[in-house]
Structure formats: C-alpha cells, structure tokens
Design a protein that fits this description.
Number of strands of chain B: 13
Largest sheet of chain B: 7 strands, antiparallel
Radius of gyration of chain B: 19 Å
Distance between the termini of chain A: 67 Å
Order of helices and strands of chain B: EHEEHEHHEHHEEHEHEEEHHEEHHHHH
Number of helices of chain A: 18
Largest interface: A-B, 28 and 25 residues
CATH topology of one domain in chain A: Na+/H+ antiporter like fold
Helix content of chain A: over 70%
Strand content of chain A: under 5%
Number of strands of chain A: 0
Radius of gyration of chain A: 24 Å
Helix content of chain B: 40-55%
Distance between the termini of chain B: 44 Å
Shape of chain A: globular
CATH class of one domain in chain A: Mainly Alpha
Strand content of chain B: 15-25%
Order of helices and strands of chain A: HHHHHHHHHHHHHHHHHH
Structural class of chain B: alpha+beta
Oligomer: heterodimer
Amino acid sequence: MTYPLADPARGLPDWLSDSLYFLPSLPERIDPLALFALLLLLGLFVGEWLQARVGWPKLIGYVLAGSIFGPSLLGWISVDTLHKIQPLADAELGLLMLEVGRRLDPGWLWRSRELLWGTLGDSLLSFLFIFAFAHYGVGLSPAWSAATAAITMASAPAVVLLAVEQFRAQGQVTERIILHTAISCAASFVAFTLVLGVVHAEQNHAWLSVIAHPLWVGGSSLVVAMLAARLALGIARLLPKSSLAQVFVLIACALLAVGVAHMVAAPVYLTLFMMGVALAVNDQRQSLRYAALPEGHWLLSIILFIVVGASLPWSEFTWATAAQALGLLAARAAAKLAAPTLTNLSLPWRKRLLIGIGIQPLSVTAVFMTHELAGLYPESGLSALTLPLFAAAIMELIGPALCWLALRRAGECREN
Amino acid sequence: MSQALPAFRQSQALSLGVELELQLVSRRDFDLTRAATDLLGKLKYDGRFGEIKLEITESMIEVSTQAQTTVDAIAADLDGLCATLRAQSERHNVGICGGGAHAFHHWPDRRISPGERFDALYQRYGYLAKQFTVFGQHIHIGCASADDAIWLTQALAPYMPTFIALSASSPFVDGQDTLFQSARLNAVSAFPLSGQCPPLADWADFTRHFEFLAACGIVTGIKDLYWDVRPKPEFGTVEIRVCDTPLAVEQAVALAALAQALARWLLRTRPPLHTERQGYVARFNKFQACRYGMAASISDPVALCVKPLGDSIRDLLDSLQDDAQALNCARWLTLLRATITDGGDAAWLRQRQQEYGNLNDVVRACQERFLRGGG
C-alpha cells in the first residue's frame, strides 16, 4: 500500500502528522477546567458510593478520594495539581469560615452563662489537655506543644456546617455545636497568632519577629476583614434584602477578602472568620443577615475536602506517630466531652454528651495552619508538626461521622 | 374503637380558660425552627399559671391558663406563662411570637412532635399534619349544665366572623400575601371534620349525634371534631376555636373578655337561634371574615340582608357594655374598638412588610412585639 502525496521514505506517523496538521499536539498538562471537573467527578463518585453503600457522610468520601489519589498514595493528583487547585479550596474554606463567623452570636453567650462557660471551657481545656499531652507525653518543646494545641483545638466549621446543611438539622444540639465550633475557632486563631511569636522566640530569638509577626498576622487579617465587611454591608444596603444580588455581593466581597489576604500574607481562614464576625456584629440594619450561601458552594466543598485529603501525609505514616496522634485525639476528646457535659445544664445529659461528640471533628484549618507554621522553620517544624497533621488526618476521616452521629442521635435531622 | 363520650363535667358558669399556640422561630433568620421538646425538656416550672405543652409539630408550643372566673386573672396567667416561656427561650436562643401563621416557613421542613397522639395524627392525616403548623387561640367558657353548653355552642356560632376578624393575623403564607386577613383557617378547612356544629337541641341530641358519627366510624373521640365552636365535656366548657393567635397577649385577653361578655349576654337574654338558617350562611360568612376582616359583608339569614362586619362589631360591643361592666372586663373591650378602626394585626403585618420589604424582618418585629411582655 502506498500513501498518496507522501514521500514513501517517510512512515505512516509522519504522513498523518503532515496531513492532520490542524490537530493540536498532545497537551503537556491538563486544562484547569477539565481538572476541576475530573476532581469533582472523583469526589462525587467516592462520596456518593460511600453514603449509599455504607451510610457514611459524603465528606468522608471526598477526603478518602483525595487521600487515595493524592501524592501520598497513588499520586494521580500531583503536588503541582494541588497548587493549581488550591485557590478554589481557599475560596470554599473562606466562605465556610465566613459563615461560621456570621453564626457567632455574642448575644446568646451573654444571655446564657452556661454556654459562655461551656464554650470558654471547651477552648481552654482543649488547649491545656493537648499542650500537656504534646509536651509531657510526646516530649515536644513548649513552643511546638503550644503550636500543636493552637492548631488542633478548634472544632471543624466546614464539617459542622456542611453536615447541618446536608441533614437539615435543627435544634439545641445543632445550634450549640455551631456556637462551640465558632468560639473554638476564634480561640484557636488567637492562640495561633500568639504562638507564632512563641515559636519565633524559641527558634531564633529574633525579638522583632516575636512581636511583629503575630501583630502582622492578626492586624492585617483584621483590617482586611473589616474593610471587606464594610464594603459588603455598604453595597448590600442599596439592594433588596434576601435578593440574589445580595448573595452575590456577599460572595464577591468574601472572595475579594480571600484575594487581598493572599496578597498581604494574611491567613485566609482568619481573615474570613473575622469578616463573618464583623458582619454579624455590625449589621445593625440586618442588611445581610438573611443572605445565605447558595447551594452551589457544595461543588467547591468537594474540591476543598479532596485537597485536604490529598494534603495529608499518609506516606510518612508510622505506627508510633499514629499512636501519638490517637493519644492527642483522646486528650482533646476528653476536653471536648467534659466542657459541654458539665455546663449545658439546661439540656438533658444525653444531649450534652451529644454536643461533646458533635464538636469532635478537627478543623481543616489545622492542615493549613500546620503548613504555614512548618514553612517558617522547615528543618524543625516539619517533624514537630507531624503530630497535629496526623491527628487532623485521622479526624478528617472520623470527624464527619461523629458529627452526623450526634445530630442524628439528638433527633435533629430531617426525616428521610 | 370509639371511645365513649365523656360525661359533661359541670363548671362555674362564665368561667374562662385560654389556650394560645405560639410560633418558635430561629433568632438567626426568623424562620420556624425545631425547638419545642428542647424548651420543655428541663423547664423548671411549677404549673401555677397553667400548662405549657407540645403541639403537633416541633415549631409550635401551646400555653393554656388555669380556669379563671375573671378576665384579669386570665391576663395574669397569660403574662406568667409567657414570662416563663420567654426566660426559657432566652436560654435556648429561640424566638417566640404570635400570629396565626408563619409568614414564609417551608412546611416540609416541619418535624412532628414525639408522642403517640401526634404520630397517630401524622399517620392519619399525612402532610396535612405538617401543614397544620398554624397557630390559634382557643377560648373556653364554663357552663353550668350540659344543655347550656349545647345551647351556647349554637348561640355563639353566628358570632364566629366577629372573632375571626378581630383576631386575624395570618395574611402571609409561603412568603406570599394571600389577600386574606386570616389565611390560617384555610389550613383547618382541609380536615374532614372541620366546620360548624350541626343544629342540635340539647346534650341528649349531641350525644346521639356523636354516637352516630362513632358508629359510622368517623370519630373516635371529641378531639376529632374540629368544629369552629364545640362543647368540651371534660372541662365543662364550650370552646371557641376560630381565632388566630394575636400578635400581643393583650389582644388575646381582650378576645377572652369579648367571649365572656357575649356568653353572659346570650345566656341572660336567650335570643331565638335560627340554627338551621344560620347553618346555610355560616361558611359564606366565615369566608368573608377570613378574606376581608372588618370590611367583610356578613349575610343575615333572618333579616335577609347583608351587613358590614365592622359596623356589626361596633354595635355588638355597645350592646355588651352592661355585661362587660358586670364582669369587670369592660376596659379590655376598648382594645377591640381600636382594632375595628386600625385593621388589627393583619394590617400591622402588612404595614411592617411595606416598611421592611422582606418577611424575615416582619417576623423579627412580631417577635419583638411579643417579647415586650404583656403585649
């Protein structure tokens, strides 16, 4: 057989290449949109399968998908891919932190002293128990122990809010889990900011960093948050309440805050949480009070949890680290069970216990905080912070189930 | 199996009892929320003002006063009950408000309260049970005898449009202005045994009617009769059931005062009843009152004419003055005169909606109005 109009000396591939010159060459990297869609499909497949077959919350499926296909195990999601997709995960984390900040209700704390003591006790005991375990049990230095405690003390706003939304949960256990989560996040961020200085002091004795870094992190987050909240409220006042336009304003201002936080090296989660609190406290005319996140943010939450799953350090797994992480989680669990059970006396003890179970999920911010802190002192930080990272890894898989169990046992999930 | 009709328990004539079904709302967005069992779970309350009970869905709670002889005592009980509930709701961050229907709640989100009776109602009525998340005021009037109770049940029936218009506080349903003043009763109408008590002469007649319904398999107990006015033999009362829960406790007390004065006047003067004729126009008149409130045109089947309801109520209040004075409740009736001119709660709700441009803030305003206490 001959190839018409082709040099017989050249083979079929060359001939095809010449003839089909209009076709693009094989891409060296996957298109970002295609990557986004593939990750969505991957997360959806595992999440839906897990819920349908095992009855577990979908979030666990997303984290599992990220873990299995991430750099630590199969490697289908590369580190480069993770970096590309990170802005989307940041956006969703920001939106969820904004939402939990908006749910922080100082008025309720003021009216109900048992809740005030309960939420403060949760944060204080969690920090102390984890610090004591990390320092005396594992032998970490005081600074890294404090860092470990600050990173892992918060409950998981993303897990809690998404579980409440998925199961349409309503009731006292639900509301108190959300409030505990919001307060523990606030306490964690304050502790983390202070701990930055302590770590600097222990690691390099550079006193300017000791003072300036926490001030920059806290101050820049606060300024960006206040400005974004002001902008959102200012525009929202001009629009009809609960309108779609208001929702878009809220999201646009939140994404603007995410972007500016990146630009000024302020933590996204802290900035957006502060923005949420600022919106809740300053919205005297209820301009944005009733604007809710659209259901479409579920798409981004899939990406967030895949990224979290893929960021978990499974390749560094050792039995010793796993045992230490379990010990940390046990100390943390004791604090988180004790605080609400001993204080929420206006509820039956069973519901108090369920609040304690519902606040066990560990915030995904732990993963981001760990990477941020470890980035400052890679030589010592990475090894010291393996412990919180593994604790987070374990809780990313167990936490959603615990939260779901608490809401369900409290009888607060919608039937069917 | 049908239960036997309980014996009529005599009570002091013209004694009063009031039940209010209240809305439990989230303080975040003012939508209805699931809160009733949590509120009642560890409530420290000795029952001195009456009862606080669950209702069909978890977003409702019912308060009921003790049986009292005076309207002022009813007011004191309601204030005590609401104060108790307010303190508990503060601890749980739940809002409480009046109004016959929630302005924008999504009925599939409602949860049936725990309990055999509620479960049985849900199994029997299906989604109607959840849609029955509407909020009414029931007024009990004590009767000295069972025959008096049946006579009063018949005699009060033509005045139901009056109670509907004076209490109307449910103009919004599913986030929409229904154009009704009281849309709540449309939810009640879906139940097969709602409506009017048929013409009955005395207690023996009522007993025969009940046994007939039971033999037909239609009723198993007195609670199955969702009539606008019905005898309540366990309490020895006649129960008026058409009122929306008003937005303020004072209006609920004023309606109880009207019921007491009207019952006294009826029992004292014993006017001819024309029950059959009234039966023919009852549904029309009820619709008119629900739809137009004070502006309703009420059919008079005896005089064979139509009268504006607002004027009729004004005349009625004038004619009840002596009885109200005798019962020491005349001051409460002046509140009702204001309702005739200002349009009452339904008009207030529409004004708030105009002012705020959204219904979340309307419910917030309702909650603040109820929280102010005593009204």
